[in-house]
Amino acid sequence: MESPSIPKFTIPLSCFLTLLLCAATLNPVFTSKVCNFPAIFNFGASSSDTGGLSATLQRVIPPNGETYFHKPARRLCDGRLIIDFIAMGVGLPYLSAYLDSLGTNFTHGANFAMAGSTIRLPSRIIPAAGGFSPFYLNIQYSQFEQFKERSQFIRRQGGIYAHLMPKNDYFPKALYTFDIGQNDLSEGFFSNMTVEQVNASIPDILDKFSLNVKNIYKLGARSFWIHNNGPIGCLPYILVNFPSAQRDRYGCAKPYNDVAQSFNHKLKEAIVQLRIDLPSAAITYVDIYSVKYSLYREPQKYGFELPLVACCGYGGKYNYSSSVGCGGTVTVNGSQIFVGSCERPSVRVNWDGIHYTEAANKFVFSQISTGAFSDPPVPLKMACHQV
Fold first, then answer.
1. TM segments (predicted)?
2. What is the tally of structural domains in the chain?
3. Residue 352 among the catalytic residues
4. Which residues make beta-bridge pairs with 348?
């Protein structure tokens, strides 16, 4: 099954050079040549989880992974995630989850992301109904701190595991990616907080985020690639659970998207401050929101259809139910029905009501990797610290 025809975003050479000059002027810590990232260390939630949830709290089951891996591959998607495309984009293998103890190779980095993770300590923990992961960002930072120390001890010790660990000089040269924050908003929404109350919590959430970035910087990180939050109000799990919310012209829940945009505005301000506080860091703010929202605004333009409807789900206008998820079973008229994939996930935006399809992830990566949606406007391959 072929993927939709996705137009490549091309930049004329003159414009490309202008972007680089602008970036170098505004942020002289950025390199002026193609980066050689030897490793990636990722922090986040389910949108970039490559095995954390599956290794610890909950097994990921079919039809997840069916499009590309032809097996669940420990991802909540029919195929690859944006972090997978990022790794490919800089010439590195897919990241192993830090918590995955079987067959893991950390030579070129590690993934600390965990489905359900938040920036702040969540009030409800999985597997409680509607709960969130205990592996919030502070814990992911602590795991990274331990990983850095123990991986080098293993390398010094030698033996069969030494070659599975990153070299010490990889840490300051690595790319540090972040895709987290949406679950902090979700936790507020599903805790009966008003939209205004969730919005008021954002400064504290981002204070916690900035603190973790600073702590990771202290451990030697210098190149940061930080995604903002996507349009949460366009996701079926919000549309189904908050049916009375005002809709925008594309069918998304406007108040919830407004909160996401407020988060993004304040995140951008926090990154400006981080650049002041961490003068040797190359910090790239990536506007995921705009790219993802374009899939709801003009899906046909990019080869997609039914952007508000889950591909793998069951029930109602949005093919989503909180009571039965992708890969589950539901009883209808006395018969058990498997909740499987739609016929053509390659033209769908949403996979399971919460996460995006591989086709959508690939589209998003094709846009953000150019630098056209970044601040400063540097492409992924040049988003590194000037050594």
1. none
2. 1
3. yes
4. 305
| Structure-token pair, residue 7 | 């137009």
pLDDT of residue 2: 40
Residue 130 · residue 190 · CB < 8 Å:
yes
Tell me if 324 is assigned to some domain.
no
Question: Which position among 49, 179, 352, 375 bears the catalytic label?
Answer: 352
Residue 5 bears catalytic tag: no
Domain containing residue 177: 35-306+355-382
Count Cα atoms within 13 angstroms, Cβ side, for 264.
21
Distance CA 16, CA 363 (A): 20
The pLDDT tens digits for 347-361 are: 999 999 999 999 999
Residue 20 within a domain = no
Instruction: Please state whether beta strands 374-375 and 282-286 pair in parallel, antiparallel, or not at all (unpaired).
Output: antiparallel
Measured between alpha carbons, how far is 296 from 209 in angstroms, rounded to an integer? 28
* pLDDT tens digits for range 171-208: 999 999 999 999 999 999 999 999 999 999 999 999 99
pTM for the model = 0.92
- Reply yes or no: is the peptide bond before residue 28 cis, omega within 30 of 0: no
* Tokens matching residue 153: 């001890």
Catalytic residue among 108, 227, 355, 385: 355
Q: Establish whether 184 is a catalytic residue.
A: no
